[in-house]
Amino acid sequence: MLIAISFGWFMLASVLAVVDGFPVSAAPFSDTSLIGLIVTELVLGALALGYLRYRGYALRELLPRPDWRGCLEGALLCGAGIAACTVVDALLPSRSGAVEPVAQMLANARPTLIVVLAVSVLNGLYEETFLLGYLVRGFASSGASFAVGLSVLVRLLYHLYQGPAGAVSVVVFGIVLGAAYWRTRRLWPAVVAHTLADILGLS
Fold first, then answer.
1. Which of 46, 81, 109, 165 could form a disulfide with 100 if both were Cys (CB 3.0 to 4.6 A apart)?
2. How does residue 144 score in pLDDT terms, banded at 50, 70 and 90?
């Protein structure tokens, strides 16, 4: 239920974009679209946390604990994730001539810095809290492969709108974050890594 609340709308919109041939994906990121994402995540995040509180879930155990060490680890984790994506991309068959939706969205993106920072911080916090802090932790008893794999699957489903190249990067980066979280059970480095990756991608 929690995943339906926090990611259901995004997954539906992403799948519809694929079915329709990515008509919306070609639109570049803008202040308007990013602010819309901020509002949506704030509303859905509040609903998701309210649901968990109603069910008696210990929210203090779910939310990340910021610290300087985690910031440094997050920066290194972001670098590792980007390096892994670069290697995998180099190993995949070339799709020369193919126009990737995510490339179109980023090529013409002109969001202001303050909006980029705001959406990057919120998006990193939102996604990793529910994907890793809740989902991986909640299915830990099923083993690393299942718990991390499930989080990567959900992550992929709401990023399908980015096209094949974007989807591959999402999967690889998600595996890196998931594996690091599984090993340390520390959420803040993953939040920082995700935030930095978003800032780099949108800047």
1. 165
2. very high
Q: Check residues 93 and 64 and name the one with the higher pLDDT.
A: 64
How do the domains of the chain map onto residue ranges? 2-202
Integer Cα distance of 162 and 179 in angstroms? 23
The pLDDT value given to residue 33: 84
Which tokens hold the place of 144? 């690393």
pLDDT computed for residue 14 by the predictor: 85
Would the pLDDT of 25 be above 50? no
Report the mean per-residue pLDDT for the chain.
Answer: 88
Nearest alpha-carbon partner for 136 in 148, 145, 126: 148
Q: Is 174's pLDDT higher than 60?
A: yes
163: left (phi over 0), alpha (psi -120 to 50) or beta: left
The type of residue at 39 is V
Rounded distance, CA 152 to CA 84, Å? 15
